Amino acid sequence: MVDMIDRLEPQSITMVQSLPEWESILGEIEMAEFFGLNLTATGPDPLCHEIQRISLALPNAPSSSTVYTVDIADRPELKESIIGDLAGLLENGRIKKTLHDSKFVLSFIRARAGRKLNFCSIFDVMLASQICWSGYYYLTPSGNPKNPWTKRLVDHSLASLAERHLGIILDEEGCPAQGAAALLPLHDILADLLAKNDLQRVADLEFRAAIALVEMEISGIGLDSSGARDLIDQEEDEIIDQIWRMQDEAERKGFVTVSFDGKRLCCYLNPDRQEDVMAFLAKRGYRPANTKAEVLKSLAAAGCSFAEALMRYRHLSYNLLFLNKWLEKVHPLDGRVHPQYFQIPSSTGRISSRHPNAQQIPRRGDDAPAIRRLFRPAAGKRYVKADLSNIELRIMARISGDEAMQEAFIKGIDLHRLTASRISGTPFEEVTDSQRQAAKAMNFLLIYGGSAKSLQWRILSDYGEFICLDETEERLERFFCSYPGVREWQKMQLSQMSYTMQHHFHNCVRGFFSLPLTATRTILGRRRIWPRFGAGITASKFQMYNTPCQGTGADLIKLVMAEVYEKLSDEEARIIGSIHDEIILEVPEDRAEEYAARLKEIMERIGSEMLYPVPVKAEAKVMRNLAE
DNA sequence: AACAATGGCGCG
DNA sequence: ACCGCGCCATTGTT
């Protein structure tokens, strides 16, 4: 520990003032072959904000560091050459770099460099920390008697890491030099932690994939703004219509709300207020448990026109919020929308997206195409969209080792049809479309650990068909008899739930230590852990079934993204989206078919390697907009 | 006034 | 008693 503390206190912080000075530091870095990089900017947006200050930390034998700081804001004449040199260092595979939140740092350098950069040999302490603590949380008292404990996820900011592992409090904001100095010992600790938990392959993957996320954020997505505004106008007209219908009905039935705060569109009934909705439905003689779409649907079927109007209202209101959110985010510099991506916020390893969320562009529903049509590539470009087909089922076949399922995929047999045939006893060729559809629902249900009860519910809500519990139990039984490997695997996962394994942690007080807890792993080795509070098990069986599938899917798509960035993308052909099992590129129209074929090849090759012996199939197509 | 929890719904 | 996420409006709490 003493060593580390020494290394934290940089022997010297040198402010770099001139180009010759900078060049001699470059020479030093080349010799050291390892450095920490930290920077601050005038804001979060690489397209319009500027890099302010760059700090480089060099290990200084044996256990201390030297930090150099360049204040670019003060010395604009140095800016161009320094950023160029930094890009060179980041692309130099011989020199190892340690960063915190590499997406932030790299996106600024990428945006300033104005060319595709082949970053390599990067270690991101934030990603490393997220990988090591994936899914972990603490319970803190909430004061709410109904729910006295609230979950608090582990914080992975640089300040938290420095405090947790090194026991130092970084200054508020300000001084990136201190942060840069902390990066070197943090690297050593987290690299050890990754090794102890056998998470190095996952970490290497995440470090490679980061640059693909940078690329997606900088590329952004083209949106037809005027088309969006037209659609908003249309839907606003209709939503007013629907509100009027509901109000009219409320008025006719003599329904008056108790309170009116002046903000509401009408004084009779606020459709956004479930209290009002429930009260009104109660007055009409309905007693729904809640006001979900499913319930409203059945009320509408029973002749309640209010329920129908409310559903339409909610749908339109969602669309309007969606469209307005996207319009609000159109960037003034390039007219495109730049959603942010987060690499490992989720405990399974999936990527998430925010501001706006690019992973929830409408797809289902009659008016989804009208919205998707608004997403368009630049002039002379086309979209290439490719998705991994039935990926979660293929993953299930691989991790469960179920022979029937694996054989079906190897022979290219339609698994939904096969399931339908096994369940109903009808010969494979004679399975009807509706039988196949029902079996499809069942296949997906199984991934989540669905029960006879939930199967019954699903069939009722999807097909309006009531099946008694005995029958769904029978179907479930036949399902598992067809795929005995899956049943065995689920049993094993269930036993893992209460099985205690040691996971390694580190903090500045205890150094390295391990705790007994519940964990799952993906094929690549990504681990999700659940804390144990006393003897309590916090994982659910559903999570034990689902996490390895979802997590392996995340591993796979990230591997594809890294490969696509490195081997396929360039200034003209860019990756612009990644939606769990789908990749979207924007490419020159005259080469679109070629890119589609290459993307498909990458996805199938990498997928089939990862899931061997289960083959992976991908479907790629060229599109003029997201609807086609 | 600012923050947290909740219900409801979009995507996979 | 179905997994993971983000977003919004409402409502309750500090």
UniProtKB/TrEMBL annotation:
SMART domains: POLAc (SM00482). Gene3D superfamilies: 3.30.70.370, 5' to 3' exonuclease, C-terminal subdomain (1.10.150.20), Ribonuclease H-like superfamily/Ribonuclease H (3.30.420.10). Residues 370-591 form the DNA-directed DNA polymerase family A palm domain. It comes from the Archaea. It holds the Pfam family DNA_pol_A. InterPro entries: DNA-dir_DNA_pol_A_palm_dom, DNA/RNA_pol_sf, DNA_polymerase_A, RNaseH-like_sf, RNaseH_sf. GO terms for molecular function: DNA binding; DNA-directed DNA polymerase activity. GO terms for biological process: DNA-templated DNA replication; double-strand break repair. This is DNA polymerase I, putative.
